């Protein structure tokens, strides 16, 4: 979902990733701090799924950045409401 509240868990599903590509997802907070998730390997059909729990995060817009070791690069965002 594009909006949530602190304590929600967001699930990110990437499609079109290269088979076997390793993808790292980063969450960039409004103040600039960065959470870097564990690497995920794309399935044969090009899917990567990751979750992030917003426990303790402040309201604002968070950027989601996914970069793969074979050139995949995706950006998105979500907003935590106060």
Task: Tell me what the structure shows.
This protein has 82 residues and is mainly β. The strands form 2 sheets. Strands 1, 3, 4, 5, 7 and 8 form a 6-stranded mixed sheet that branches. A two-stranded antiparallel ribbon has the order 2-6. It has no helices and 8 strands. It has strands spanning 3-5, 9-14, 22-28, 34-36, 40-41, 48-53, 60-68, 73-81. Strand 3 and strand 4 (34-36) form a beta hairpin. The model has no long low-confidence stretch (mean pLDDT 95).
List the keywords:
single chain, 82 residues, mainly beta, six-stranded mixed sheet, two-stranded antiparallel sheet, elongated
Layout: helices, strands, pairs:
Elements: E1 3-5, E2 9-14, E3 22-28, E4 34-36, E5 40-41, E6 48-53, E7 60-68, E8 73-81
Parallel strand pairs: 1-8
Antiparallel strand pairs: 2-6, 3-4, 3-5, 3-7, 7-8
Nutshell version of this structure?
With 82 residues, the chain is mostly beta strands. Helix content is 0%, strand content 55%.
The tally of beta strands, per DSSP, is 8
Q: Helices and strands: which structural class?
A: mainly beta
Gyration radius over CA: 13 Å
Sheet with the most strands? 6 strands, mixed
Question: Which stretches are poorly predicted, pLDDT < 50 over at least 5 residues?
Answer: none
Q: Name the average pLDDT.
A: 95
Q: In what range is the share of β-strand residues?
A: over 45%
Oligomer: single chain
Tally of alpha and pi helices: 0
SSE arrangement, N to C:
EEEEEEEE
Helix amount: under 10%
Quick one: overall form?
elongated
């Amino acid at each position: 979902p594009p909006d949530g509240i602190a304590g929600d868990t967001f699930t990110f599903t990437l499609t079109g990733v290269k088979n076997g590509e390793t993808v790292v997802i980063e969450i960039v907070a409004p103040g600039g701090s960065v959470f870097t998730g564990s690497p995920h390997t794309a399935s044969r059909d090009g899917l990567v799924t990751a979750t992030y729990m917003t426990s303790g995060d402040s309201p604002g817009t968070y950027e989601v950045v996914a970069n793969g070791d074979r050139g995949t690069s995706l950006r998105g965002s979500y907003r935590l409401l106060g």
